[in-house]
Design goal:
alpha/beta; Helicase, Ruva Protein, domain 3; 5-stranded antiparallel β-sheet; 5-stranded parallel β-sheet
């Protein structure tokens, strides 16, 4: 019984077209003349063609002339019939988009030489390449992990201002890394071998903060059984970092102003001035200009603090840093938990890149720690992420919203426990305390 070669070829073509139409990667085939004979919808999307538009075009017209040479992979595959697997090429498609494609070739034999083809398999790895390049290009600067241009500019600024003793004011939302920047200023300065002392001004009531900063003498108040030297003296010769500077009272502002003007302190209960040699770095997430206008912060102190200013952008404005930070925290918590987690899945990274991060880097770190604890395999998946991060894709509930409303909701969910509410939100507990204080001030 004879077989019709044309019928066989037609059947083979229909089978091949049906196969490449259902696979989840981009595929096109080319004949010995290197003209495209078939292309599935996924390849058309990657290469920017309309349906059927590429049929009959040459490989050169399809992928661009940069890939054509005497050692063209397609020609070589026809010659030696060997499969060539996975090399990354950058293609500018018909829509003018630059795409990174993982390209492989395979020889498709046929009874007639004219029916032989090479199948070209394409995987779009553009986002993966962007992440890889971001990780490769990331910087680590005294604990500050960054890949974005904005953060690299801040690193350059810190290096410029660090050698001088002028006061530095760091502005930025909660969780953006203000303390890391303050420590970097110290480490890059001539004072780096001297103490770096941190005081969170919002963590102390007014009277206790004054004692914590300036110290006290024995008998200055009930319970003062011994002298206390205070943080200014402890930081002598080095750097004192005053975090949440916008929270200090008017009385403490007056004393701090004198330190900046005269470089002396007085302990509580003592009138003897003590000279101090320190550099002050202050930080706040408040708008100090508004605080001055509304009478809550001294104008003269503001100008004394605002000599050199560093503005830290929120994480949502520097999303290029998310992959680098994720990789950093993944390594940190995988080592801490003893787990072998090598990477983050594409869908998990998509959630991380789209989330608004109201708690900034601190919230991202909490999210990765949460995910590492929950993860069971070598790949961290979207299912491992906290629900508020997984809810950050379009069409779902908003993740940022009004922070005050979100804090109230977190407090309700935690039964009024400040620490737990802060953990739910991925913010520092002082953010929750400030919200409670403000709510008390406006309550009738």
């Amino acid at each position: 019984m004879s077989t019709n070669p044309n019928a066989f070829a037609d059947c083979r073509r229909r089978s091949l077209d049906a196969l490449i139409g259902i696979v989840g990667v981009g595929i096109f085939t080319a004949g010995p003349d290197l003209e495209v004979r078939s292309m599935n919808a996924e390849a058309e999307r990657m290469l920017g063609f309309e349906r059927g538009e590429a049929i009959g075009l040459s490989c050169r017209e399809t992928l661009g002339p940069d890939l054509c040479s005497s050692t063209c992979a397609f020609r070589m595959t026809f010659v030696d019939k060997n499969t060539r697997k996975g090399w990354t090429v950058t293609v500018t498609n018909r829509r003018g988009e630059e795409r990174d494609l993982l390209l492989s070739t395979a020889f498709l034999d046929a009874p007639e030489p004219a029916d032989q083809e090479v199948a070209v398999i394409l995987r779009d790895v553009t986002e993966a390449e962007q992440i890889r390049k971001a990780l490769q290009d990331r910087w680590s600067f005294h604990g500050l992990v960054c890949a974005s241009g904005k953060m690299k500019e801040i690193v350059s600024l810190v290096r410029e201002l660090a050698p001088y003793d002028s006061t530095v004011l760091i502005l930025g939302e909660s969780g953006t890394g203000k303390e890391i920047i303050a420590h970097a200023v110290h480490e890059e300065s001539p004072r780096h071998e001297k103490p770096f002392v941190t005081v969170n001004c919002s963590a102390y009531p007014e009277g206790l903060l004054e004692t914590e900063l300036f110290g006290h003498v024995r008998g200055a108040f009930t319970g003062a059984f011994n002298d206390r030297k205070g943080r200014f003296v402890a930081a002598n010769g080095g750097t004192l970092f005053l975090d949440e500077i916008g929270e200090i009272s008017q009385a403490v502002q007056v004393k701090l102003l004198r330190v900046l003007q005269d470089h002396v302190i007085e302990r509580v209960g003592d009138q003897k001035p003590i000279p101090v040699d320190i550099r002050i770095v202050a930080a706040t997430n408040r708008d100090l200009r508004r605080e001055v206008l509304e009478g809550r912060f001294r104008e003269d102190l503001y100008y004394r603090l605002n000599v050199l200013t560093v503005h830290l952008p929120p994480l949502r404005e520097r999303r290029e840093d998310v992959p680098a930070l994720t990789d950093h925290f993944l390594t940190k918590y995988a080592e801490r938990t003893g787990k072998t987690i090598k990477a983050v899945s594409d869908d998990a990274m998509e959630h991380l890149l789209r989330h608004e991060w109201p708690g900034n880097v601190r919230e991202l770190e909490n999210a990765i720690e949460h995910a590492v604890v929950r993860a069971h395999g070598a790949i961290l998946t979207a299912a491992d992420l906290p629900s508020e991060v997984r809810g950050g894709l379009p069409g779902s509930a908003p993740t940022r919203g009004n922070l005050a409303t979100r804090i109230d909701a977190a407090l309700a969910a935690s039964g009024g426990k400040v620490g737990r509410a802060a953990e739910i939100l991925g913010v520092h507990r002082t953010t929750v305390w400030r919200h409670l204080r403000r709510r008390e001030r406006v309550s009738p």
